[in-house]
Specification:
Length: 51
C-alpha cells in the first residue's frame, strides 16, 4: 500500500490522533468522518480526517 492512501483520524472533542486508516482518494474527494471509540474521552465520538 502506498503512503499517500494512509490518513490520520483525529477525535473531534479532545483533538488526539487515535486511529490510522486508508481511503481511495480518487473516489472519496471530501474528508472522511467515522464514529470511533476514543480512549482518552472514553466514549464513541466522531473522528475526522486530518491533513
Amino acid at each position: 500500500m502506498s503512503q499517500d492512501n494512509i490518513i490520520k483520524l483525529e477525535c473531534s472533542q479532545c483533538k488526539n490522533l487515535g486511529y490510522m486508516s486508508h481511503k481511495n482518494k480518487k473516489t472519496l474527494k471530501d474528508r472522511l468522518e467515522l464514529k470511533k471509540f476514543c480512549k482518552w474521552c472514553r466514549s464513541h465520538i466522531a473522528h475526522k480526517e486530518t491533513k
